[in-house]
Q: What sequence folds into this?
């Protein structure tokens, strides 16, 4: 509360946590809004969506995952710094949070980026029921110093506490550099449900040393009673006002959280580009050149290296300070990307291999998609680009296709185009016309492929399929096919080979359907196309159980599809490194042909 | 002899490379190690050089084409006139055992018209759409009216019985039986004829044979089966089937003999039985039947019957109509006699045999060989 009180600039941010009430009331003064929110009333500050733990109000944000907001704080601070604003970001955590690695990624990132974020540790010595002396190794203050942060330790029992905190916040603001402030304090009550196991004598000691108690000691008994009485009356008043609001109800229960498509399509000249890599590089260059808010963040992006797959080659030299090579901190940079996006930037984060997306999962699942869903005023136009897929012998943790995990994340857009799509155009549209957190998947083997629509045509998108107009589904082949192969991304070249064999050697009429938008799934568009087809095989490189193809088949089944279906993907085993082993694990054209023959 | 130059591997991770271009033309004289052209992956470009001096006979891959590492890129010969050896038509599709004998589309067409693939003469060894369509045209609409409901894929399934029960998988033998019965229903045009005959001469002959050969038992049924094989020599058409509108007379006589072994009903086959003399056949059939009783039939003894013999004498059955095993047209039905008389019948495929021929064959079988 002392830190929040010391924040004075309109660009200052408070990122609080699941224990946010004091921070929020200090920030907003909106007592009724908070109480109504906790009570699930319509007049709550977040309309009842966030409850006690998740509050968004102007530049105040809290969430329920301990170190989850720390990277976001770094991103917000970076956005402030980039705009030349003196705004400071206060990220408030407890001493228990010192056990989470995300915090250290964020501290390191703040240090290397030199951005004004203050990590505030409310150190009360206990986390839920466990003393942190039993769970924290080493020295807390030294943690901050080890990352090169200015680090202070103060106690809320000190008479000069408020002034000292104000001075520290001012120092962070004037230096523009990150810091860490450890505040020794005491928890006077239980964590939540009367589950405090501490010795009563210890509790009495804490109460005795509490600053409010110290204040009371300086007043006469009647003054203290008077204050208590007024507080009681105030609380009763607040309660009555909160109860006067009706319970929070949805006018219409939301079915999705996506912001609508905006803007108009821009021109793209892709003919001259030799391959997918060049098309993506060109799109990024176009974005950087035309939109000052676009910023690229990822590992090893800088020239002359230009990223592990050279997609950002030449960009860091051309756009100084906007193509940023980061520490190896996938979760941290995803968080920073969310912060940048919340502050109005258009971050494009590159994760070097899609396999590492698992490190980003909390940031995606609990943060990037939650804020736009919970809070109308918050959007997260973040793109995470990442190369995925196998057939290069990179082994179990560098060859995977993880879309099966991410298509199930509510509110996440998952794009997986192919060389048949205009991938650069998809990327530009994702950045400029789609203000939703988006995972942009790129198969490693497609980078060298020529972008060529061939004889594919765009399937007319159904108006009810959100995003379908930006990220089209393609199809080619017969209108009256014997078999329809539904495939996407890096499986498309394999599927095409199989289609040729089926057509040339088995005399079949084959249709290929290739969506780029995997989630939100363009259901109506696909249903309209597929419902009267006699046989459908869904081909994917991912582990297909519980995956994308499972969803397609479920969609068909739910709608009374009468034909035959099958799906083909990778078995639920690690992908081997030896090429001879890998090639028997990932479906190739022969496997697709065999699956079709089984269908026939 | 022409020497192939293979597509080299540029790095471990790329199984395919793109041909950038060639620096020589067809027919050109090349020296050893001369650069012939370039290939590339998305990482690197590499020269392809001549392994030896000679003449460039021709290219297999073309510029801009993506080709497999290890496939033939071009050919070099000692002289400019050498022939390039013939290549496999589709080097790209080298797995999954190659194309099927019947194309998938042809199968769909067969299913739509309710036809068996056996009925359709292949073209160049494959049953293709063209082959099926030609067959349909030649049959003049007598076969192959499209089945109602269109293709199998959208046909409603038999919903099954509407009474509580549980599904039991068929044993291998039961599946075989189901398949046989289905062939009989779907493809043969079955008929049945029987004659009455005196059993005494056969009983006497069997006893005589037993004594002469010093056997434990009179082998009546094996001897009657042997007689059937001898009749084939006079009437080859009973050892035949019907293929593509023509009679197909078998060269060997593979005698199928039904035997019940526990729950399983086998058609145990004695292959090339026409080559055996009487005793060798009796012993051979005995061996096969013993193996069948022990469920130990060899693979070759479970299929390939060209003619059949079935007896239900053991169950005192006095008349039965056997099912024709697939691709046979004559199966003898032997039954128990009464008061010196018995019926000897045969199921037959009316496309191959007429009633008179069947009666003629049965009369011969009902008469044992002469003996001293």
A:
């Amino acid at each position: 509360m002392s830190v929040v009180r010391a924040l004075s600039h309109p660009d200052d941010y408070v990122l609080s946590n699941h224990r946010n009430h004091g921070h929020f009331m200090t920030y907003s003064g909106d007592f009724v809004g908070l109480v109504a929110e906790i009570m699930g009333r319509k007049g709550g500050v977040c309309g009842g969506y966030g409850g006690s733990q998740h509050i968004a109000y102007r530049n105040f944000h809290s969430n329920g995952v301990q170190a989850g907001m720390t990277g976001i704080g770094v991103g917000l601070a970076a956005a402030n710094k980039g705009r030349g604003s003196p705004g400071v970001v206060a990220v408030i955590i407890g001493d228990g949070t010192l056990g989470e690695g995300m915090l250290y990624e964020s501290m390191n990132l703040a240090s290397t980026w030199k951005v004004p974020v203050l990590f505030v540790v409310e150190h009360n010595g206990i986390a839920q029921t466990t003393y942190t002396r039993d769970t924290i190794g080493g020295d807390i203050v030294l943690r901050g110093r080890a990352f090169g942060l200015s680090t202070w330790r103060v106690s809320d029992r000190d008479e000069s506490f408020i002034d000292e905190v104000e001075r520290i916040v001012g120092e962070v603001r004037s230096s523009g550099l990150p810091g860490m402030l450890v505040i020794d304090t005491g928890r006077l009550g239980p964590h939540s449900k009367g589950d405090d196991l501490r010795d009563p004598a210890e509790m009495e000691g804490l109460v005795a040393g509490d600053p409010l108690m110290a204040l009371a000691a300086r007043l006469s008994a009647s003054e203290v009673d008077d204050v208590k009485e007024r507080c009681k009356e105030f609380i009763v008043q607040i309660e009555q006002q909160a109860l006067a609001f009706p319970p929070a109800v949805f006018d219409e229960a939301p079915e999705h959280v996506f912001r609508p498509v905006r803007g108009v399509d821009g021109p793209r000249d892709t003919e001259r580009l030799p391959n997918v890599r060049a098309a993506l590089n060109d799109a990024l260059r176009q974005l950087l050149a035309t939109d000052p808010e676009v910023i690229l963040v990822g590992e090893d992006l800088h020239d002359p290296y230009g990223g592990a797959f050279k997609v950002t080659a030449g960009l860091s030299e051309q756009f100084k300070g906007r193509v940023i090579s980061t520490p190896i901190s996938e979760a941290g940079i995803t968080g920073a990307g969310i912060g940048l996006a919340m502050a109005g930037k258009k971050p494009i984060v590159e994760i070097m291999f899609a396999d590492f997306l698992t490190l980003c999962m909390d940031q995606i699942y609990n943060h990037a998609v939650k804020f736009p869903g919970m809070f109308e005023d918050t959007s997260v136009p973040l793109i995470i680009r990442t190369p995925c897929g196998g057939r290069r012998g990179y082994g179990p943790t560098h060859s995977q296709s993880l879309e099966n995990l991410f298509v199930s994340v509510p509110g996440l857009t998952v794009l997986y185009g192919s060389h048949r799509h205009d991938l650069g155009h998809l990327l530009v549209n994702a950045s400029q016309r789609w203000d939703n957190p988006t995972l942009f998947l790129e198969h490693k083997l497609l980078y060298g492929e020529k972008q060529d629509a061939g004889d594919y045509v765009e399937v007319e998108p159904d108006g009810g399929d959100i995003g379908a107009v930006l990220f089209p589904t393609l199809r080619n082949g017969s209108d009256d096919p014997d078999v329809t192969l539904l495939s996407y991304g890096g499986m498309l070249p394999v599927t095409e080979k199989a289609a040729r064999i089926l057509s040339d050697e088995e005399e079949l009429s084959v249709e290929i359907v290739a969506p780029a938008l995997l989630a939100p799934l363009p259901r109506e568009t696909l249903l309209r196309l597929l419902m009267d087809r006699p046989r459908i095989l869904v081909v994917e490189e991912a582990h297909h159980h519980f995956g994308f193809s499972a969803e397609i088949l479920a969609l068909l089944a739910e709608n009374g599809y009468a034909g035959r279906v099958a799906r083909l993907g990778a078995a639920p085993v690690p992908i081997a490194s030896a090429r001879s082993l890998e090639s028997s694990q990932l479906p190739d054209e022969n496997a697709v042909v065999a699956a079709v023959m089984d269908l026939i | 002899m022409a020497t192939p130059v293979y597509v080299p591997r540029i790095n471990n991770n790329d199984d395919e490379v793109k041909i950038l271009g060639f620096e020589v033309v067809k027919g050109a004289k090349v020296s050893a190690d001369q650069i012939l052209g370039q290939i590339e992956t998305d990482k690197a470009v590499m020269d392809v050089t001549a392994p030896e001096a000679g003449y460039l006979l021709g290219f297999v891959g073309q510029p801009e084409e993506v080709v497999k590492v290890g496939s033939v890129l071009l050919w070099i010969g000692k002289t400019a006139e050498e022939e390039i050896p013939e290549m496999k038509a589709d080097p790209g599709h080298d797995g999954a055992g190659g194309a099927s004998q019947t194309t998938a589309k042809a199968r769909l067409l067969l299913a739509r018209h309710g036809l068996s693939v056996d009925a359709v003469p292949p073209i160049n060894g494959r049953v293709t759409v063209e082959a099926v369509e030609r067959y349909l045209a030649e049959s003049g609409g007598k076969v192959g009216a499209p089945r109602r409901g269109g293709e199998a894929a959208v046909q409603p399934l038999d919903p099954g019985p509407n009474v509580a029960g549980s599904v039991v998988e068929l044993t291998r033998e039961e599946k075989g039986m189901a398949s046989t019965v289905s062939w009989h229903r779907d493809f043969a045009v079955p008929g049945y004829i029987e004659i009455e005959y005196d059993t005494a001469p056969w009983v006497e002959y069997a006893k005589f044979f037993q004594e002469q050969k010093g056997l434990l038992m009179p082998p009546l049924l094996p001897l009657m089966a042997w007689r059937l094989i001898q009749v084939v020599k006079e009437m080859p058409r009973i050892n035949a089937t019907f293929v593509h509108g023509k009679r197909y007379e078998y060269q060997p006589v593979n005698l199928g003999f039904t035997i019940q072994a526990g729950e399983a009903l086998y058609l145990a086959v004695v292959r090339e039985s026409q080559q055996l003399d009487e005793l060798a056949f009796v012993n051979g059939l005995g061996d096969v039947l013993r193996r069948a009783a022990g469920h130990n039939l060899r693979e070759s003894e479970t299929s390939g019957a060209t003619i059949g013999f079935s007896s239900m004498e053991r169950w005192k059955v006095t008349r039965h109509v056997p099912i024709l095993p697939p691709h046979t047209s004559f199966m003898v039905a032997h039954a128990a006699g009464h008061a010196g008389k018995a019926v000897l019948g045969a199921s037959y495929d009316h496309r191959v045999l007429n009633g008179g021929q069947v009666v003629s064959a049965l009369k011969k079988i009902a008469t044992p060989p002469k003996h001293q």
About this structure: Chain A has three domains: 2-17+63-218, 276-446, 473-599. The radius of gyration of chain A is 27 Å. Chain A has 22 helices and 22 strands.
